[in-house]
Design a protein that fits this description.
This protein is mostly helical and 334 residues long. Helices cover 76% and strands 1% of the residues. The longest helix is centred in the middle third of the chain and has 28 residues.
Length: 334
């Protein structure tokens, strides 16, 4: 019921909000998708990845290359191309990374992601496209500018594009959340939690530990790539910074801030981080200091994650009428 109400509120917001808050909300929803995908690997499976920026960036770059070197004009094709490439990359790198566990897994994800980042920032990925690719790299320093793509075959004007794209982002967020919820509650999701809690015992009872970790890695890359594609169209520019490990660290920060053991924790963390960033931008010179202080305060206020803290507060509020009623009946009895 809460999910239905929340989805309804998201759908009516374009009629209530001006452009800037709507853009900020769109970024929060995009990073919510990425953090939900990351948390399938981190919170559910117990594997910490410092390389998910690679799938986020590739999800944006793949469609960008199709636009510059092909006939791409459709947002749907742009997103599908990004998801397909990020999925393929996650399948390839995940097959190697899941051979290690714990800190070694984290190191491998970081190493592979930085290798992917170097291909873009050095211009090597542009070289197969010949002189056009080299000129494009020299012009943008590894970055790409993309236009407003058509949505469902319709060209949307500048004044209506942000609300139209917002609806696409909302549908992607709701669809991703529902699918990941079903996965987390499925036998496969329960198996992933068993692997997280005790991989040795899970292997003894017959679970294919490495294969399930690989599946979780691929699924995580799918949703992170989708978020990257949406981010590229919303920003209308794609840069190598979207492939850097600092973005991976931000995704982990949002996930942990919200609470990795609560399904909606990554969503709460993404929204909180977007809000804190918006607040810190009011002090441009001390933005990092203000953002850091706000994050430290939130960690001390809700050490188990914001989602867990909100859940505790809501449970206490619900219990208030019952406690008053029982106290009143006790007084009557006396």
């Amino acid at each position: 019921m809460c999910a239905v109400i929340g989805g309804g509120v998201l759908l009516v917001l374009p009629a209530l909000l001006p452009a800037y808050p709507l853009i900020t909300l769109s970024y929060a929803l995009i990073f919510s998708i990425a953090c939900l995908g990351l948390n399938l690997l981190f919170g559910t499976t117990g594997l910490l990845s410092l390389g998910h920026a690679a799938y986020f960036g590739v999800g944006a770059y793949a469609g960008g290359f199709l636009y510059y070197f092909g006939p791409l004009t459709s947002l749907e094709v742009y997103l599908l191309a990004g998801v397909a490439c990020s999925t393929a990359l996650a399948a390839l790198l995940g097959a190697l990374c899941v051979r290690a566990t714990r800190i070694h897994f984290t190191i491998l994800t970081l190493a592979f992601a930085q290798m992917v980042h170097s291909l873009f920032i050095s211009g090597a990925i542009f070289q197969p496209f010949g002189g056009v690719g080299k000129g494009l790299y020299l012009l943008g320093g590894g970055g790409l500018y993309i236009p407003r793509f058509t949505i469902l075959g319709t060209e949307v004007g500048p004044e209506r594009f942000i609300p139209a794209l917002y609806y696409v982002i909302v549908l992607a967020f709701l669809g991703s959340g529902l699918l990941l919820w079903r996965i987390s509650r499925s036998p496969f999701g329960m198996a992933l939690r068993a692997i997280r809690d005790n991989d040795t015992r899970a292997a003894f009872v017959g679970l294919p530990v490495r294969r399930y970790r690989w599946y979780a890695f691929i699924l995580s890359g799918v949703f992170t790539g989708l978020a990257g594609g949406l981010n590229g169209q919303l920003s209308r520019q794609i840069t190598p910074e979207q492939l850097d490990w600092l973005l991976s660290a931000q995704l982990i920060l949002m996930t942990v801030l919200g609470g990795s053991r609560h399904f909606l924790g990554p969503v709460v963390g993404a929204f909180a981080f977007a809000g804190l960033e918006d607040i810190s931008l009011r002090w441009v010179q001390y933005r990092g200091l203000v953002l850091g202080l706000l994050l430290i305060a939130l960690v001390f206020v809700a050490p188990g994650g914001l989602a867990r803290g909100l859940s505790t507060v809501m449970s206490a509020v619900r219990a208030l009428p019952y406690s008053r009623q029982s106290k009143g009946s006790g007084d009557d009895g006396s």
